[in-house]
Amino acid sequence: MAALIHRPEYAGYDFGPEHPFTPARLEMVLDLIRCLGHEVTPIAAPAATREDILSVHDEAYVAMVEALGRGQTIPESEQFGLGTPDNPIFPDMDLATRWLVGGTLHGARMLMAGQEKRVLQLGGGLHHAQKDHAAGFCIYNDLAVAIQAFLAHGWRVAYLDIDLHHGDGVQNLFYAHSRVLTLSIHESGHYLYPGTGHIQELGGGSARGMSVNIPLEPFTGADDYLEAFDAIVPRALEWFSPDVLVVQAGADAHFADPLGDLALTTQAFQALYQRIFELADAHSRGGALLTLGGGYEAQVVARVWAILYLTCMGLPLPEHLPAEWLQRWRHLLGAGIGRELHDPESAIPDLPGREIRSRRNQDVVTRLVDSLHRLWI
Question: What are the two backbone dihedrals, phi and then psi, of residue 161, each rounded to the nearest 5 degrees?
Fold first, then answer.
C-alpha cells in the first residue's frame, strides 16, 4: 500500500550546526515512528547519477557543486548561489545531495513500476533549487528530477506544494510545460521569501493555466487555509486528471515555526494530509509521491511528519508521545513540549484581525478562480 524511503546518508546534507535545515529533523521523526511501536525498515534508495541531475540542471552548475564539494576555492561560487548564508559550502555536497535526489527519484520509479500507490520519501523536498543555481537551502531539485522522470514515462504530473514558502524552483522549471500542473499554497510573497507565487503567475505559452498559486496573508489559521485549499486544489486536480501526484510536504506553515507567519496546527496538518490522500486516490491513477521540505521548529516537525507517516500508512494516531523519545531528544525539543502528539488548546495562539485576513484571502481565491475559469473552460 505504501513505502517509506530513507537512508543514513541523508545526514550528510548538512550546512552546519547553526543552520536551520538540520538533518537531525529526519532522525527525530524516524526515531519517533519507531518509538510509537512501528517496526519500519526504510527502503535504502541509490544515489542519483550525474546524468539524473543533468536532466534538470545545467552542466556548468553541476560542475561547480562538484568542485566546491571537493574543497576547491572558486571566487564566482556565489553567482551560483553557493557559499552564501542560505547555502554554505560543505564537503562532498554533490554526493550528499544526490543521495536525497536518488530517494525521490527511486520513489517515482516505484510508482511507475506499479509497485506502490503511495511513497513517502523521508527527506528531499528541495523545491527552491533552480536550473543553474542553488537557493533557499536547496542545491539540486529532487522534485524536478522525479517529475522529469515521470514525463519521460509519458505521465501527466500534478505537483502540490504545501510548504510555507512558494515552490518557485519547481514552478520555474516547468512553467511552460503543458503536462505539469504546479499548485502551491503558501504565505504571500509580498511578505516572505522567495517573493514569488502571486496569482498572476499562471504559466507560459501553451501552458497558461498550468501554474496555480494560492498566496495567503500572514497569520492565516487553519479554517481559512483549508477553505482556500478546498476552493482550488480539488477542482484543479479534477480538471487536469493527472497520472501522479507529487507533494512537497513542508511543515513550516505551523504557527510555531520561526521562519514564517502562517498559523496551522498539528490538527490542521492531519486534516490537510487526509484531504491530499483522498484527492490522490480520486484523481491520480499512478498514486502519490511525497517528500518532506521546510520546517524549523524541532518539536513541530517531529510531530507533524510523524502524523504524515501515520496518515500515509493508514495507522491510528496516538494521543501521547513516548516518554523514551521525549527524553532522548530533550536537548532539541525544549522543556515545554508536553506529552501530547497534537497541539494542546492552550498553546494555540489567538491572533487578532482574522476578519480582515479572511476577507483578503477570500478575495485572492475569488480572483484566482475567475482567472482559471477562463483558462480551463
Answer: -120, 115
Quote the cell numbers at residue 296.
524549523
- Bridge partners of 159, per DSSP, are 182, 246
The domain defined by 2-376 folds into Arginase; Chain A (3.40.800)
pTM above 0.90, yes or no: yes
Told to judge if 38 belongs to the known catalytic residues of this protein, a careful annotator would answer no
3-class DSSP assignment, residue 181: strand
Question: Concatenated DSSP letters for 127-170?
Answer: TT--SSS-BTTBSS-HHHHHHHHHHHTT--EEEEE-SSS--HHH
Alpha-carbon distance values, 222 to 65, 153, 226, 240, 296 (Å): 39, 37, 6, 26, 19
Choose the catalytic residue: 6, 128, 177, 186.
128
Q: Would you state the pLDDT for residue 334?
A: 83
Q: Give Cα separations from 337 to 7, 74, 170, 263, 323 (angstroms).
A: 28, 44, 34, 17, 12
Cα separation, 237 vs 342, in Å, equals: 29
For the chain, the structural domain boundaries read 2-376
Calpha distance 143→128 (Å, rounded): 10
C-alpha–C-alpha distance, residues 224 and 357, integer Å: 9
Beta strands, E only, 195-285: 211-216, 244-248
Closest CA to 129 of 155, 93, 180, 156: 93
State how beta strands 244-248 and 118-121 pair: unpaired
What's 93-138 look like in SS3?
Answer: HHHHHHHHHHHHHHHHHHHHCCCCCEEEECCCCCCCCCCCCCECCE
Give the model confidence (pLDDT) of 237-276 as tens digits: 999 999 999 999 999 999 999 999 999 999 999 999 999 9
